[in-house]
Fold:
Amino acid sequence: DAGVTQSPTHLIKTRGQQVTLRCSPKSGHDTVSWYQQALGQGPQFIFQYYEEEERQRGNFPDRFSGHQFPNYSSELNVNALLLGDSALYLCASSLDAWGTYEQYFGPGTRLTVT
Amino acid sequence: QQPVQSPQAVILREGEDAVINCSSSKALYSVHWYRQKHGEAPVFLMILLKGGEQKGHDKISASFNEKKQQSSLYLTASQLSYSGTYFCGTIKTSYDKVIFGPGTSLSVIP
Structure:
């Protein structure tokens, strides 16, 4: 059973560019959440997708947007990249009802903005 | 609001015990614990739900004091493999987002 997969593993972009990160959830999971993790910090919640809709959103600007496809995979898009967007971006999948079910994290995409 | 974790870091010798604490100023529905090894993804350890239900790792124990909005993770007879950063995540309602704490770095040495 494949776990959560993310692509690409690493990415280097220039300020002002746009980036798309991809995530495939664990088999059987219908909910995908995205997190940003800066070095030495805990994961910060960006947003969550369920049934192809954004269900929850953290304190991130509109430059961060996402999408969920019918097969439950998801994309995270970041526009107008800033140096401060450099971080590890984690995708996590779960069954519905967060409060009750564990999340399975992917290995992450390391984004460097120069 | 981000939960507070203590201690920030701890170093143990193999076989020693440790307790990691997590506290919130808000009423909580559940507390989640994850461990992240360097360069790897966080891995689920435990969920503690309001009302006393627990789900998780057989070899790890934890508690959740609903009145004080505090949770503690108990690591007994530590092994080298326990090294990593431990994050607690708090949830206010069953459909709310997880807010992760800043983490506790645990190092187990021979």
The first strand of chain B starts at residue 4 and ends at 6. Chain B touches chain A through 28 residues (CB under 8 Å). Chain B is about 0% helix and 55% strand. The mean pLDDT of chain B is 92.
